[in-house]
TrEMBL record:
Catalytic activity line of the entry: [(1->4)-alpha-D-glucosyl](n) + phosphate = [(1->4)-alpha-D-glucosyl](n-1) + alpha-D-glucose 1-phosphate
Function recorded in the entry: Phosphorylase is an important allosteric enzyme in carbohydrate metabolism. Enzymes from different sources differ in their regulatory mechanisms and in their natural substrates. However, all known phosphorylases share catalytic and structural properties.
Listed cofactors: pyridoxal 5'-phosphate
Protein name: glycogen phosphorylase
Root EC class: transferase
Superkingdom to which the source organism belongs: Bacteria
InterPro entries, per database record: Agluc_phsphrylas, Glyco_trans_35, Glycogen/Maltodextrin_Phosph, Glycogen_phosphorylase_DUF3417, Pyridoxal_P_attach_site
Any Pfam family hit: Phosphorylase
DUF3417 domain location: 13-120
Keywords recorded for this protein, A-Z: Allosteric enzyme, Carbohydrate metabolism, Glycosyltransferase, Pyridoxal phosphate, Transferase
Amino acid sequence: MKAIRRFTVRPVLPDPLRPLSDLARNLRWSWHAETRDLFQSVDPERWASSGGDPIRLLGSMRAERLAELAEDRHFLRRLTAVADDLRDYVTGPRWYQTQTAELPAAIAYFSPEFGITAALPQYSGGLGILAGDHLKAASDLGVPLIGVGLLYRHGYFRQTLSREGWQQEHYPVLDPNELPVVLLEEEDGTPAQVSLALPGGRRLHARIWLAQVGRVPLLMLDSDVEENDLGERGVTDRLYGGGSEHRLLQEMLLGIGGVRAVRTYCRLTGHPAPEVFHTNEGHAGFLGLERIAELCDEGLDFDAALEAVRAGTVFTTHTPVPAGIDRFDRELVARHFGPGAELPRIEVERVLRLGMETYPGGEPNLFNMAVMGLRLAQRANGVSLLHGQVSREMFSGLWPGFDPEEVPITSVTNGVHAPTWVAPEVIRLGARQIGAQRAEDALTVGGSERWDSVTDIPDQDIWELRRSLREQLVTEVRERLRVSWRQRGAGAAELGWIDQVLDPDVLTIGFARRVPSYKRLTLMLRDRDRLMSLLLHPERPVQIVVAGKAHPADDGGKRLVQELVRFADDPRVRHRIVFLPDYGMAMAQKLYPGCDIWLNNPLRPLEACGTSGMKAALNGCLNLSVLDGWWDEWFQPDFGWAIPTADGQGTDTDRRDDLEAAALYDLLEQRITPRFYERGRSGLPDRWIEMVRRTLTHLGPKVLAGRMVREYVERLYTPAAHAHRALDADAARGLAEWKARVRAAWHGVTVDHVETSTTTATAELGSTLTLRVRVALGELGPEDVEVQAVSGRVDAEDRITDATAVPLKPVGGPDMEGRWAYEGPLSLDRTGPYGYTVRILPDHPLLASHAELGLVAVPADDVVEGAGVLLR
């Protein structure tokens, strides 16, 4: 019989065991080994069956066992020690509290998904895992972050396979009462709520659930409340589900409702109000509109409020392709704002202008969430050096007149939270080498360029560790494969072969990620005969573990999954290659440590960062990857291999796949498998072990989320907080008025005359020329602009590359015609073809970049005297 109503019965813990509840509710247990060990000792079998989830474990405990533990003095001593450790962790000073700079009082970090632990399944892939690692690293460093997201009642889908290998999706209902979250309550005990106005007089209400991630609160909005109609209740049903209006409502709730949730949380708890708001991808971009509306209520006009909001906003873009950005029809957005809907105090046209693609190549009727995010943030970044470059080119239309390299989008390369992703065995080896506290600091705070202590670990210890981790993966794979085949309809009698799947002494390759076409799940199948010979090589075989989910609406991705599954089903190779369905955090934590090679073969440059290879590297797994994302930045032959790319303009997609697959096979056959199986005098693969050692020594400190968050604090959060403090109401009004005046007068700004102290087309290295310029500033003055000399090498078309900009100084004016004279030195510090130009830019002490207004004036072709190219 089916129950007509469901509710959760919580156990009553005896008083001595009450700290268990606090430990279970703080998600630090998900990366703190001692806490997990304590819960496991409560009941090892139930711990395993609960999936390592303390809430589920405690909810299933018998009262007799709890009473027994309440009398167990050894257990109670351990409980006290772990509870005291958590208390010290959440209240004591950490890295952030030791800094001398004037750091932000608080930062609000918005993301549509968060991958904290498998026990809170609110993530789909890399964006969510990155957001979870950001929160954990902020907690470890003591950064006063507040996370903001949505609580999806179905989370992301669970994946199984049909008998034919076709992906099937399942959406289990999540009961928040069975998750490690608590309701945020008002002082009278009623649930705290936020609400949004919808067209037609309706309202969208949401409760606020709180997940405690170490020191960091994560606020999650949930629309499944009785006050809502059926349609509104379903707004937070699924991650990345539904049509355009559904997604728009999710993103309005995340951005606008999220700011209101932050204000409510700070009011109820006394947490400092955020000085900086960080938008993790465009989904949360509407947060800027809500903050503008707040300031308008305080008496600022829209333009001044916009400047104040921009000053304290950081925007991170994660996609290198326009198709990865949410875009909405202009009319749909217009219907949800203005009178009779949300933010009625703001003109709808002002809202639309923030997101419209009003640049060459844009679609003027589409509202682009990333474009809005960039227009509402004074500071923006990509997530690797290469991705920053791609982003500057992709969004250069927002800054007309500037070369892509000057577009104000920087980069902070992603990192991963080592305590979450590093196998306990690896951490124990490090602790044995340098001590537990130093090992913990190295993995969380980071800061060192190299982990030189790894060089002292004996080869034998490294090799035994690697084999042990591989053996654990083999066991895990067989268990998961058996479950998968039973789900596909196989009987127990058909599955005896699974006991022979994989071998703990065979070179193991891992490939696991989402399955959009650009990640090329099936590139390895390009030449199946060649792959089969690699898998079945008599002396140097390889084995491959593959996992990944295609988006439910992506039939092309599902066909790729099916193609891989069908190959892995072949009785000739099924002991050497497996596809594991339902890729998630729990699987990943076994997969990364157990593999020897982590394979990554996206179409370059479409991988923004690719953090799975970082997690593998921290466990001593070597990367085999296309030079994309972070690997393009940090690859060295000492600790991995680069798959050559065939990305010339004349190479079609099929040809490119053929060439890059052939390069992949060549690397495996000629360089990788020989090195793994080759034995030195000690009987160990000395050269392989040395690569593992170098991976840990040189890559380890770089790929840490602690390093990433420290960069955000130093390079983005702190400057944003200072800009926020500088832009009080008067300063914001002044800046807005100045920008309006500059924009209105810019048509009168021209470069009228340029000359140098030489008239020849050649000059000697090291010499200095004097550059004289006359400019017209119209209604502006020298205090409103900066006149620059821009010089550098030039290409065959006289385009300046590797440019250096030097400000020129006013030396007289205005003359009778209202022109100003500027002068300055031009140092010739490079040989070869060399050129210069002059430009005028808006200048104000409160601008973060001269490119901020997208205004520039350069000489007309008939202005320059002489060749303009100084060295040939």
